[in-house]
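Q: For a teaching handout, I want to show students what a protein-ligand complex looks like in token form. Below are the inputs, and the small molecule is flavin-adenine dinucleotide. Please produce the holo structure.
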Amino acid sequence: MNFDLTPEQDQLRDAVRALGRRYGHGYFVEKAKAGEHTTELWNEAGRLGYLGVNIPTEYGGGGGGITELAIVCEELAAAGCPLLLLVVSPAIAATVINKHGTDEQRKRYLPGFADGSLKVVFAITEPEAGSNFHRLGTVARRDGDDWLLSGRKCYISGVDEARYVLVVARTEDESTGKLKPALFIVPTDAPGLTRSKLDMEILSPENQFLLYLDDVRLPADALVGESLDAGLPALFAGLNPERITVAAMGAGTGRYAIERASEYTATRKVWGGRSIGSHQGVSHPLAHAAVQVELARLMIHKAAALYDAGRDLEAGVSGNMAKYAAGEAAALAVDTAVQALGGAGMTTEYGVATLLGAVRAGRIAPVSREMVLNFVAQHVLGQEKSY
Ligand SMILES: Cc1cc2nc3c(=O)[nH]c(=O)nc-3n(C[C@H](O)[C@H](O)[C@H](O)COP(=O)(O)OP(=O)(O)OC[C@H]3O[C@@H](n4cnc5c(N)ncnc54)[C@H](O)[C@@H]3O)c2cc1C
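A: Here is the structure, written as tokens, with flavin-adenine dinucleotide included.
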């Protein structure tokens, strides 16, 4: 058993950490408050090859796996820049196209993922279906060689920044009522596709949208894969990378918050000569949060290693567990850090309360803690499916 990163992974981690720190949480907050995006950071990370670490070298990527992408997600978050677009674009969309796209789609899209110049977001959630994706109501109908897509999606992140959105739809010829999903690469400026920004209580430069698809006409090659049979495996291909990278983002955010709080409590003195961190009522909750974050990190490394070894089923279990653990640990770490900083914890300047909304959302999205527990109860504990 080896818990060490390879020298290349170590170098990647150090380099991404340095880049993240150069921008820092102040930059992230400033962009969010101005209603702007973290374009400079994204573009620089793309130029340096960090956004394409998991793209095969033949398309200009780093030739690594989800382990490498998780390192990028964690280190940027640990520098105070948790970028959700890393989860939707390189982790989900690029993986789906790489693993299940046609040769033509790989040639067309992967080079853009490799240097970060292409952002593709992901739309599965619908107002009526929610966690139950078997109820998806977005329909794709054939019209000659073309496809026509109609339906509604909600909470879709980053649509305003992306050139395409990968839309999960149900194919209309399904008479049995059984879900036969298909994925479509839809230009965000396609006629018939409109969006409205949701007001979210999350301080982030990345936004969520309601999407309306009203007979959006797409050419035949917008369908991911050679045939409709590619749909279900393509959809599942995105799940493990999503769980693992969002977990890495949570672990990084937890590290960031604990580091901010520990720096503060080690130097803040209000009872004579001793720091507030010398009081165990302050230091133990931080230490406890650090333990939870480290446990989540171990699970993330395990899930990523299994995924990169092609052990998808095991990676599914570990990835879900990692996502759950990291979501809980991040929320605990940020809340504990706010408390340890006292009033300073609630200021923008100290940069921890600014993450409360994001870590709270991390227990709901992209898969809620309850749905992970359902998965573990059913697939690990052998319990009857409850829904
Ligand atoms: C910040 C943010 C970004 C997002 N980005 C995207 C995106 O880019 N693309 C995208 O497609 N979606 C996105 N989502 C949507 C997200 O994936 C969903 O919010 C999530 O899957 C939960 O679905 P829901 O909100 O409809 O909750 P619901 O399904 O309505 O569930 C509500 C509550 O009930 C619980 N619940 C539901 N069913 C069960 C059950 N069987 N057993 C136990 N508990 C249950 C849930 O866990 C939850 O706590 C985003 C959401 C947020 C908050």
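A: Two things your students might notice: Residues 88, 121-125, 130-131, 155-157, 202, 208, 361, 364-368, 370-371, 374, 387 surround flavin-adenine dinucleotide (CB under 6 Å). The first helix runs from residue 7 to 33.
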